[in-house]
Amino acid sequence: MTTEFRFAVNVTPKPGILDPQGRAVEGSLQHLGIEGVSAVRVGRRVELTVSAADAAAARVVVARLAGELLSNPLIEAYAIEELGPSSSTSVTDAGG
Amino acid sequence: MTVAPAAEDQSLAVPLHRTLGLTDGELEAIQDRLGRPPNDVELAMFSVMWSEHCSYKSSKPLLRTLPTAGAGVVAGPGENAGVISIGDGLAVAFKIESHNHPSAVEPYQGAATGVGGILRDIFTMGARPIAILDALRFGDPSDARTRHLVDGVVRGVGGYGNCVGVPTVGGELVFDPSYTGNPLVNVMAIGLLEERLLTLAQAPGPGNLVVLFGSATGRDGIGGASVLASATFTHDDPSKRPSVQVGDPFAEKLLIEVSLELIERGLVEGLQDLGAGGITCATSEMADRSGTGMLVDLDAVPRREPDMAPFEILISESQERMLAVIRPDREAAVREVCRRWGLPCAVIGRVTADRDIRVIVGGVAEDPSADGGIVPGARSVEVARVPASALTSDAIVHERIATAPARVRSAPAPGSPAEPTDRLPERGMDPEAVLVALLGSANLSSRRPVFEQYDSTVQVNTVTGPGRGAAVLRVKGTTKGLVASTDANATVGAFDPWLGAALSVAEATRNVSITGARPLGVTNCLNFGDPTRPEAFWQLSEAVRGLADACRALGLPVIGGNVSLYNESPTGAILPTPEIGVVGLIEDTANLVGPAFVEDGDAILLVGEAGPGLAGSDYAQLGGVAVEDDLPSIDLEAERRLQEWIREAVVRGLVASAQDVSGGGLAVALAECAMWSRLGATVRLGVSHSPAVDLFGESPSRLVVTTRPRHAPAVELLARQFGLPTALLGSVGGERLVIELAGAGATGAAEERGSRVADPIDIPVARLLQAWDHGLARALGWGSPSSAPGGR
Amino acid sequence: MSVRIGVVVFPGSNCDRDTMHALDLAGAEPVELWHETADLQGAAGVILPGGFAYGDYVRAGVIARFSPVMRSIADFAADGGLVLGICNGFQVLAEAGLVPGALLRNRELRFLGRDVHIAIEQPETPFTHLAGPRRPLRMPIAHGEGCYYADAALLDELEAQGQVLFRYVRADGSGAGETDDPANPNGSLRAIAGVINAAGNVAGLMPHPERASEAILGSDDGFGIIASFVASAAERAGTPATVAAGLR
Lengths: 96, 792, 248
Fold this sequence. Notes:
heterotrimer; B: alpha+beta; seven-stranded mixed β-sheet; 26 helices; 31 strands; about 35% helix; about 25% strand; disordered N terminus; C: alpha/beta; nine-stranded mixed β-sheet; two-stranded antiparallel ribbon; 11 strands; disordered C terminus
C-alpha cells in the first residue's frame, strides 16, 4: 500500500558561491526604480510527487534525487519542502 | 602598527606548510629567502606561488631549452601571451592553457573558467580576443562519467565563449581510456592588436597606483590552484573539494571592454589579469618584472563576502578581475571608464621602490616623503612582507630525475627500410569495412554535434570554422588572414615522447601550411603526469626535446604556453599529451586553399611517401594491434621542405585543394576530401608496404593535393625541386570513392578467395557521410545529430 | 551624406561591431546608442544587435527592456521609426512587446550555432524589399533561446495579417516542419524565423544577416536585409541616393 506525497525542492547557490543571475537582477533594479533590495540569490524550484509507503520513505527518495540530480553539490544547496497531497498548497504570495 | 606573529604552532599534528602542499625542503628555502620563518599568511602566499601551476618549478629547466626567438616576435614566454607582428602595424597574440583539474571536479564551471582565464591572458596584452580553439580529451565515450564530463565541458566552453562573443573556431575532441579519471581541457585563444598598444604586466614608477577592477573578491578557489594542481586528484574525497570558481562571462565581456578602452586611451602603465594565485600572483609578478615593490591595503579590496581573512583575500581565485598600475593623475579617468561599464574599481595600493610585496590591513596614510607616497595607517597591521622575487623569478626550482622506462622504443632512423615484421591484423581485412569503421569511430567521425553548440561566426571574421582542418579568420581592413590549428599526438608519444611531440608540431604546422599560410609561432600545453616519478619526468623532458627539435627544424619560435603536471588518477597517468597550438599568416585570403575537392576532372596527387609503422594509429586502435608494432618515423628536414613546397605551390596558384594525411591515413584523408565536397574520386594506389600501411598508416609528411590536369606537370616539377616524391593517384569525379590497390598488395580477404589483388574500396560518398555524420553522437549516446543544411 | 543608423549597445551586446561593419558595407553611418542614454542621436533607423544583454541571466532580453534607451526606442517605434532586432535584439523587442510572440529555449535545450536557410515571406517590407527574388537565404544562427512561440489564435492572426516575415526552409526551398525537422533548428512554431509588427515598422529575426553579408564569410545572402533596412531608413530621412551607391 503506497500513498502519494507532494514535495518541492528549492535549489539555491551555496553561500559564498558567485551568483551571476542574482547579481544581474540586482543590477537591473535601478532601471525599474526599485530601492532597498539586496542579497538577491537566484535558484530554481522543482515540484514532484512520490509514491511511497510513508512520508519518511518518500522524503528519503526526494533527498537522494535532490542531492544527486537536481542540485550540483559543489555549488548548490537544496531544501526540501513537503507540500501535502496537492501541489503548491504551501506557496504563499506566488506571482502570476 | 603591529606585526602578526610567525607560524610556529607546534601543536598541529601535521605542520601547516605540508597541509598547504609545501615540502620541508621548500619551507627551508622560504626561510632562506626571508631570513626568518614565514607567518601563516606568507606561507599561504608561498604555497600558491610555489605551486607547480604558478612556479613551473619542475619544468622551468626544461623550458629554457626551447627556441624562443623568431622574426616578428614582440613578446615571448614569460608574458601573459606571446605576441607576433603581422605587418601593417598589427600583431597577433595567442596562447594555450589547461584547466584540467577544475574541469574534472565541476566540468561546466571548470571549462567555462578555463575559457575566461585564457581570454584574460589575451586582452591583458592589449589584444581583442578574436578566436577560441578548445582541445578536449576524455576517457571511453561509452562510460557514464565520461559522458557527464563531455556534456558539462562542452556546455561550459560554449556557455562562456558564446556569451563573451568570441567565436570558437576549432580544436579537438579525442577519446582514450587513459583520460577517464583525468580529462584534458586545453583552451587556446587568439587576439588581434595594434602593435603600438602592446601592454605588459609590469609595475613601473614608485608612487603609481595599484588598481583592482572587475568582479568583487569572494572565497572562490581558496587553495584551489595549489591543491588542485599539486596533488593527485581523487574526485570522491570531499576534503579535497575546493570552493569551485564560478565564471561570469557577462562580467568578462565588460572586463574586455574596460581593459581595451583603458589601454586604447593610454591610461595604464601595466596590466595583469588575476588567475591562479589571485592578488598575490598579480602583485608579485608585476612588481618583480619592473624591479619594484608594492604596498597593498587589503581593506581597500572590494569583497563579495563578509569576514574574509587576509590570506583568503590574497589567494582568492575569484574570476573576472584585473590589476592595473596607473599614474596618480589618471585615477579619475580610470574610475570613469569602470563606472560607465558598471565594474567595481578600487585603488588597493601603491608601487614602491623597495621590491617587497608588503600587505597590510587597516588603511594607509598619505606621506609624500615615503616610498610610494603612502605609509601604513596608524591602526594598520602588517600581515605579510615578502620580496616580490621570492614569490616569482626566484621561486624554488627542482631538478627532477628522469629515467627512461625499461622498455623504451625510439623511432626508426629516417629512411630506414620497411620492416616486414609489422604484425597486423591484415588477414581477412576488408579495406572498405575498415574505412567505414574508421570514419564512424569516436575519434575520426564528424565533431559537428559538439561544435554546433559553439558560436563560431560572431565577429564576422570566420572564413573557415570548425570541422575542416585549420580555422581561418580574415583580418578586417587588410587582405590578410590568420590560420590556426591545435594538434597533439599522444598515442605515439606514449611509446616515444620525443616522437609524439615532434609529430604534434609537424601536424599542427602542416595543417596551417596547407592553406597557404606561413606558420608564425608555436604555443604549447604540456599535459603530463607526476614529475616526481622519474618515468613521468622522462616523458616530459623527452617531449620538450622533441618540441624544441621540431620547432628548430621548422624555424619556429615557441612564444609561450603552459605546463600541467600531476595528470593522474587512481587508475593511472594520462598518455603524455603535448598539445600544440599554431597560428599562421596568409598575406592574401584570395589565395586560400581548402582540403575539400573542388572540381570534377581535377588530378589527385600524393606528395610525400608512406613510411612503415602502424603503432599509435587509429587503424591500430581499431584492429587492436599489439604495442610491439612499430612506430612511424619523422624526417623533420623533409617536413620542412614539404611545408615550404605547399606554400609555394599555393602562392603560384597551382593547387585546387590540399589535405594533410593524418588520423586514419590516406584512405580517410581522401574520404574527407570527398565528403566535404560531395564529390567522388577514382584512385589507383600502388602499395609499397602493405595495404594497411599505405591505406591507413599515419606516417607524417604527406599531402593529398588536387590540381587542374594541365597544372599537374608543374606541381610535380615543383615538388621535385623541393626533393619531394609525388604520385599521380587519379582524378576527382562521380559520386563514389573508388580506391584500387595495385602492386604487391594482396590482403587477406581477397587472398582467401584466391585473388592476388586486394579488394578495392568502392563506396558511395553518401555512405561515407552517413558513417561519419553519426559516429560521435552514437559513441556518446546522444540523440541523432541534426544534419546541417548546405554547410560550408 | 549617408544615413545614420543607431546600433544599441547593451552591456553584453556582442554583435554590435558586426552590425556596424555590415552597415558600413551598406553605405550607412552607424552610431552607437549606449543603453543608459535616451538620446537616439538623430538616427533614421535603429538596430538592436545580437549578444547577451546584461548576461541574459534571468531570461533573454528581459532586463534590457527596462533600460533608458529602450524607452526612447519604444517612442521612436510608436512614431513610425524603423527598428530591427537581430537574435538577442529580437528577444528584447519581443520582451518589450514591440513585436508579437516570445522566444523560448531551443527544442533540444542546447545552444545552436550553424547555418540555416530562411525564406522571405513578405517581400515588400522596409526590411526585405531589396533582398531580390524569393529563394532560400543561407545565414548563421547562434542562440539558445530562439524557439518562436505564440498561441494558436495569435499565430493565425499573424499569418492572416502578413506579419510572418521570415520562415525556416530546407536548402531546396521547401517548407520546414515544426518539429523534428533539422531545417527548423529550434522548433519554432510554424517555422517562424522572424516577424514584423502590425504597423510594419518594427521587425525581428533570430538568424544573423550581418554575418552573411560578404562572400568571404561563405554567404552574402543576408546583405539584402541590411541593405533594405538602410535604404528604407534613408528614404524616410530623405537621403536615398548615397545609400543606393552602397548596394551591390
